[in-house]
Amino acid sequence: MNGPEIDVSLAPELRMFAVPERRRERTAVVTDGASTLGHVIESLGVPLTEVGGVFVDGRDTPVSHVPRAGEWVEVRAVARPQRVPGAPLRFLLDVHLGTLARRLRLLGVDAAYESEDIGDPALAALSAAQRRVLLSRDRGLLRRRELWAGAYVYSDRPDDQLRDVLGRFTPVLAPWTRCTACNGPLEDADKDAVRERLEHGTRRTYDVFAQCTACERVYWRGAHHARLEAIVQRALGEFDTP
User: Fold this and answer.
1) Average confidence (pLDDT) over 171-199
2) Which of 39, 55, 69, 186 is the most exposed place for a label (fewest CB within 10 A)?
3) What does the alpha-carbon distance between residue 233 and residue 235 come to, in Å, rounded to a whole number?
4) What pTM, to 2 d.p., does this model score?
């Protein structure tokens, strides 16, 4: 690019997206004189889903602004908790976030998940069609223009991913009400009604069951319940709001 030079300050939370030489508190950027602030910010590696506000010479400015020589651009991170107006808070997770999807569902959070790679255009279109916040660690995917709303998942560790999403969006938690396999709602099930779906040992040992109203999967408090209960209690202790 060979155009106006501007100074850009990225919020500390956003500097991780930039190449090392751009992670200073203030860095000079030469633009092409035609690209918007949004394009300039994305060219630095920062997805606009992570931008909470842009200020030019101290004035709140839309990302459609075309920067002029000598301007100082301050890029702020999204405020937490982040509100997503326009639809009930629901999520869509890409193929790499299966464990996070199951943990969100365990907590009763509506989390659709694509277990196969359907491609970035299809994922972004699905986010728009269903008005779901797309969660991903793929910055290219989060730059898709057809995307309705999105958020970068900052960690590759499921425990940290869950804390990140719950802290950012503060969804209402309703543990044990959603199928971890398909995201459908659960309802109490009579043992006799689901008997044919149970192995003999399960029928003999357990009496309390729930069943998914969508895929009909049956749930009970089996060997993994203590581990799942620990996940639930940690989340409720830190993020549940009255």
Assistant:
1) 91
2) 69
3) 5
4) 0.91
